[in-house]
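From the shared-data thread, chain only:
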Amino acid sequence: MNKNIKAFIKHVKSECRRNGIKCKLKNVTYLRLSDGINCSGYFDEDERKLVVAMNRPDWLGILVHEYCHLTQWVDGVKVWTDGCEGLIKVEEWLDGKNV
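Structure, as tokens:
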């Protein structure tokens, strides 16, 4: 891991601490959500967690993606604060609904 990646990880952890978010970088391939769905990473404002499965070739992109959700939440970006219709549709589809 090069120094720029290490610096980015340090920055993410620092921003999480500053905003009261637990940062969990786990040495696993997938994370299992409470509803039984596997994923590679997530940011949860309610549980105040940013979690990434690090034992994957694409872990850095996933960390960047989830960090972006953290910054959307911190900055109060409208697409985050007003809810995401696209995510709602994905969750409905995962629950078996034809959308």
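The chain has a mean pLDDT of 91.
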